[in-house]
Amino acid sequence: MDEKTKARIMDGSKIRRVLNRLATEVIERNRNLKNLTLVGIRTRGIHLAHRLAKLIRDLEGVQVPVAVLDITPYRDDASSPAKQAPGNKGKVKFAVDKKDILLVDDVLMTGRTIRAAMEGLIDLGRPRSIQLLTFIDRGHRELPIRPDFIGKTLPTSRREKVHVRLKESDGTDEVLITEPVKLR
Length: 184
Hints:
The chain is of the alpha/beta class. About 30% of the residues lie in helices and about 30% in strands. It has a five-stranded parallel sheet, with helices on both faces. The protein has a three-stranded antiparallel sheet with strand order 1-8-7.
């Protein structure tokens, strides 16, 4: 089924403004930036985490590390590949013990991706805290998960899709709402 663009919510300049605001909020809420690690969720969460780390460095002079967690083995949906053997969960290893972890994702809907990410983090150790930053929160939660930092709340129907496009992966910065189109 094809999709048609219903609305263009953000362009590159709006995305920059939202990221600047989010970086400031993260700085205000995290007094010890040297204990903070940003964990980007594939694919666009990784790009957003790197942009946030650069903004924090520019504003505060602190280099906040960015890590990637492979959540595939922790997904609970039927469309995921078979779960890996317990000893092989999570491809990238990084220190989480006693760290303040900021999970970064592009779009939050049901909360299942975030549940998988938290399970993966706990498998790696015991963080001091886990916070959640989502660029777009579209509602429709199936789990009791609430972000600490939200770029934009965007009420949508389940039928609609939200696409966060970033230069690093898509060649452009924009946020679109699309909906399926029936072919005749």
